[in-house]
Design brief:
heterodimer, A: alpha/beta, 4-stranded antiparallel sheet, globular, B: about 425 residues, alpha+beta, 2 domains, 6-stranded mixed β-barrel, 14 helices, elongated, binds adenosine-5'-triphosphate, binds magnesium ion
């Protein structure tokens, strides 16, 4: 059983009379300990897909099996529980609570958890240690650099040992040196067995991943291991022939 | 279902929100502060006034009991001849000797006599026969001379007490003690001048010329089946019910009235007025309650407004909390707790102000409010109302927060 199985996922928005198919039949299978980059031009549906995978939203149609459970038809309360236990989010703009210390920010998921609140301190400290922030435990977000803030956010995301770590452009607000630091942390987590999905615009970021999923107009255009993906890109197209390529058309990147 | 950490952080967050927006929170809670302060102050004033007035009642005769003969209305008259119904001196003695809850007792009878003093002569002046206890019961003392004693009563001495009006009417010297006057053809020595009672609190006493003689002496002037009533003073006003019951029991025994049979007498305590005053005080308290209702409504709308502002300001935070696993109910609870906390803090400040006002009242001379104090029930009620306001008016913003879509919330600027 795969960790994630998505079949014919659709998300339709209606703005006035206009109908926008943000996702238009996405099929995707993700295994445990995958390290995936989701790429695609602006508006191609990357964030929409991430929100769907992160159980923040429900699809208009299609199925989404997470650990074998169909989460596409769950109610708001059940989804909240799934998010709490199975999913860790990292956002582009960090989303830390400004008046709380790094430690308190990291503990936040345990506030809403069923159990585990007793050993919150050691767990939060361990998570901060994993992202290399043991020396900034009692700092508030405004006393931290951008990269440090994002590390706090990552520590928060991995606190509950989620099945997947989702990051929507996690380095979008960071300079290239800091981006490298953050990616190193992701790599480390992946090496320790964490399943990670990153949405990114940058090839340098995608280069750290094992697999690249490219979206276009709400569809998966290609889904390749990183080597083939970059090889294809160097030849001027996404996805070489002979791989498990989904679209025949060339990508004019 | 919810872990202790949730409660801890929710309450801490509620207080830190207030602390972070101190002046805003204060202005918002002002409605509740003013409402609670004014209402508790009014209640404190009423409570003080009540205990004050009740002590005044007591001094006038809150613990007084009247006993009258009373022929039952629902029985044939011939079954209750006057001789059976009228109070007797022996009954007054029985009450005096047996009743535990009374401090003083006197039979009272009035006899119309011709009064002479020198060349002054008044026909049919009402002369009152009393026991010495009467002084204590009516709280009337002599301004000159001496009050009646037990010896006056037992020896049937021909002595009398007169008031100022009687002195004037009989053209006696200003201090008449030692003078003699003639009552019903007998010479009486004036032993004391009794103070004239102004028409007091309830206009019970409208006195003009008054002359008192010992009851045993008055009895001699009366026919055999004369009319008398009995007035008694209870040991304390709280005994009103118990004491009247005891007196009734003794009188029933005296008259041999079996259980269930209608009484041929009436025992009445003077707490009627106290009841009236209490009703009045309750009415004013209810009006004060109305005031608090209105001010809490106004305050509540302020709370609702500020909570809506808070929800919209913290939309992203709500989105994040939802993203990390807060259910709609947890968000709802969080915001309700914040509204309730805000209201309770307002209620607390209001109560403190109310106390201060109550203290201020006690310092006003001659305002009769020196016993003003906020009773415990008002404190409890103030907090309950504040919390209720938070719950009711915090509900709509809290529901709004709980229903926020996490994605939209996270995208909010
Ligand atoms: N709430 C919404 N209502 C209407 N349309 C929406 C909504 N959310 C997304 N869309 C539309 O769905 C499409 C996909 O949006 P999405 O945010 O997933 O793109 P994206 O790939 O993340 O783009 P970017 O790289 O700019 O972040 C866009 O055309 C967008 O306008
Ligand atoms: Mg996006």
């Amino acid at each position: 059983m795969s960790l994630i199985e998505v079949r014919q996922l659709e998300k339709v928005y209606r703005v006035g009379v206009e109908i926008i198919r943000a996702l238009n039949g996405v099929d995707l299978t993700i295994e445990r300990n995958d390290f995936i980059a989701i790429m695609g031009s602006s508006g191609s549906g990357k964030s929409t897909l991430m929100n769907m995978l992160g159980c923040l939203d429900r699809p208009t149609s299609g199925t989404y099996l997470l650990n074998g459970h169909d989460v596409s038809r769950m109610g708001a309360t059940e989804l909240a529980r799934v998010r709490n236990e199975e999913i860790g989010f990292v956002f582009q703009s960090f989303e830390l609570l400004p008046r709380q210390t790094a430690l308190e920010n990291v503990e936040l998921p345990l506030v809403y958890a069923k159990g585990g609140w007793r050993d919150r301190r050691p767990r939060a400290l361990a998570a901060l240690d994993r992202v290399g922030l043991s020396d900034r435990v009692h700092h508030r977000p405004n006393q931290l650099s951008g990269g440090q803030r994002q590390r706090v956010a990552i520590a928060r995301a991995i606190l509950n040992r989620p099945s997947i770590l989702l990051a929507d452009e996690p380095t979008g607000n960071l300079d290239s040196a800091t981006t490298v630091e953050i990616l190193a942390i992701f790599r480390q987590l992946h090496a320790e067995g964490q399943t990670i999905i990153i949405v990114t615009h940058e090839d340098e970021v995608a280069a750290h991943c094992d697999r690249v999923v490219r979206l276009r107009d709400g569809k998966v255009m290609s889904d390749l291991p990183i080597l083939q993906d970059s090889a294809g890109r160097h030849r001027g197209g996404a996805g070489a022939k002979g791989s498990h390529e989904l679209g025949e058309q060339k990508l004019p990147c | 279902m919810l872990n202790p950490l949730f409660w801890y952080q929710a309450i801490a967050l509620a207080f830190s929100q207030i602390w972070a927006n101190k002046s805003r929170a204060f202005l918002t809670a002002l409605g509740i502060i003013v409402g609670v302060a004014s209402t508790t102050a009014v209640i404190a004033a009423l409570t003080g006034l009540k205990s004050k007035v009740l002590t005044q009642f007591e001094s006038v005769g809150a613990s007084k009991v009247f006993i009258f003969p009373n022929r039952p209305d629902d029985k044939p008259r011939n079954l209750y001849p006057w001789e059976k119904v009228r109070l007797k001196t022996s009954e007054a003695r029985a009450l005096r000797d047996e009743c535990e809850s009374i401090r003083a007792i006197t039979p009272i009878t009035e006899v119309g006599l011709e009064v002479e003093s020198g060349d002054r002569k008044i026909e049919g002046l009402s002369v009152t026969g009393i026991w010495p206890d009467w002084h204590e019961i009516e709280n009337r003392n002599v301004t000159s001379g001496r009050p009646f004693t037990a010896i006056d009563e037992t020896n049937e001495r021909q002595v009398c007490l007169v008031n100022d009006d009687a002195v004037k009417e009989l053209r006696l010297p200003a201090d008449p003690v030692g003078q003699f006057i003639t009552l019903g053809g007998r010479r009486f020595l004036i032993v004391g001048l009794i103070e004239t009672v102004q028409a007091r609190f309830f206009g019970l006493n409208t006195s003009s010329a008054e002359i008192f003689i010992p009851f045993s002496v008055a009895e001699k002037f009366q026919p055999r089946d004369f009319f008398m009533r009995i007035t008694a003073l209870l040991k304390s006003p709280e005994l009103a019910e118990e004491g009247t019951a005891e007196m009734r029991w003794i009188l029933r025994k005296q008259r041999g009235i079996p259980d269930g049979e209608t009484e041929s007498f009436q025992v009445e305590a003077i707490d009627r007025f106290i009841q009236q005053f209490k009703t009045l005080a309750t009415g004013i308290t209810a009006i004060a309650g109305g005031i608090v209702g209105i001010s809490l409504l106004v305050g509540g709308i302020g709370i609702m407004n500020i909570m809506l502002v808070s929800v919209s300001e913290r939309t992203r935070e709500i989105g994040l909390r939802k993203a990390v696993g807060a259910t709609p109910n947890m968000i709802l609870l969080q915001f309700l707790l914040e509204a309730v906390t805000l209201c309770l803090v307002g209620g607390f400040i209001g109560l403190a102000c109310g106390r201060l006002l109550a203290f201020g009242m006690t310092q006003i001379p001659s305002a009769q409010l020196d016993e003003a104090d906020i009773p415990l029930w008002a404190v409890v009620l103030a907090f309950a109302f504040s919390a209720g306001t938070g719950l009711i008016f915090g509900m709509f913003p809290a529901i709004k927060a709980a229903r926020l879509d996490p994605i939209e919330a996270l995208r909010h600027e």
